[in-house]
Amino acid sequence: MDLVGILEQGLIASLVAMGVFISFRVIDLPDLTPDGSYVLGGAVTVAFMYAGLPWILCMILGGLMAGFFGIITALIHNKLKVNSLLASILVMTMLYSINIRVMNGPNVSVPKEITAQQEAQYTEKTKLDDILGMSSLNESQSNLPINDTKKTLSPFRENSGYNSTILIASIVFVSALLTIIFLRTELGIALRGYGGNKAGIKNLGMNTE
Fold first, then answer.
1. For residue 199, is it within any domain?
2. Which of 4, 15, 31, 135 is an S-S bond match for 88, by CB 3.0 to 4.6 Å?
3. pLDDT given at position 10
4. What pLDDT, on a 0 to 100 scale, did the predictor assign at position 142?
């Protein structure tokens, strides 16, 4: 693998590092949910891409779904009084199966453009669909032309080489900047205070749940 590819993978993984940093260092609550929710976000994004949705909308939906399971971890920890690490391990383990189900397989590549035939292969019925009583998505698309090409789905289609690296670096930079700005807001300061002195935050009358 060339150095550019290694740099791109490192930049992508840095997004996970930011999430782990907030939970371990800022809030001082060990949380392994990102190990599963990060993959879930990518799986949901690619699944909606194969459904023909615009890539920006797919990324938003993937992020919302990943955040939803973070909320589930928080509810298990706060409402059921389960240790945050154990709660996150429970959710992370559950997400391994969910991710495979969402992708309809162990691994799916990010599409740049797809045809109706490729979409049918991705959405074809499996044995699990028969067990759950679910119908195949491609049954309603059987009348589509076999080589009907959909519009470009990936922002990287026209970006290759260093252009892709610059685009990924820009996304990481904006994410880091938004994280810094958030931690300086009233809620962000409260989270930092909770991580540094939980008893003090409770004495100030703030709801720590």
1. yes
2. 31
3. 92
4. 47
Torsion of CA 147, 150, 155, 160, to 10 degrees: 20
Q: For residue 17, give its domain range.
A: 1-27+159-209
162 close to 7: Cβ distance less than 8 angstroms: no
Tokens of 184: 């300086």
Q: Do residues 27 and 195 touch, judged by C-beta distance below 8 A?
A: yes
Asked whether residue 6 is assigned to any structural domain, the reply reads yes
The pLDDT assigned to 148 comes to 54
Categorise residue 149: left if φ over 0, alpha if ψ from -120 to 50, beta otherwise. Answer: beta
pLDDT for the residue 141: 47
Which residue reads 């990010």 in tokens? 110
* Neighbour-count burial of 127, counting CB atoms closer than 10 A to its CB (0-12 exposed, 13-18 middle, 19+ buried): exposed
How does DSSP assign 95-148, residue by residue? HHHHHHHHHTSS--PPPSS-BHHHHHHHS---HHHHHHTPPPGGGGGTTS-TT-
- Averaged over successive runs of 10 residues, the pLDDT of the chain (209 residues) comes to 82 88 87 90 88 84 93 92 93 92 78 60 56 50 50 57 81 93 90 81 72
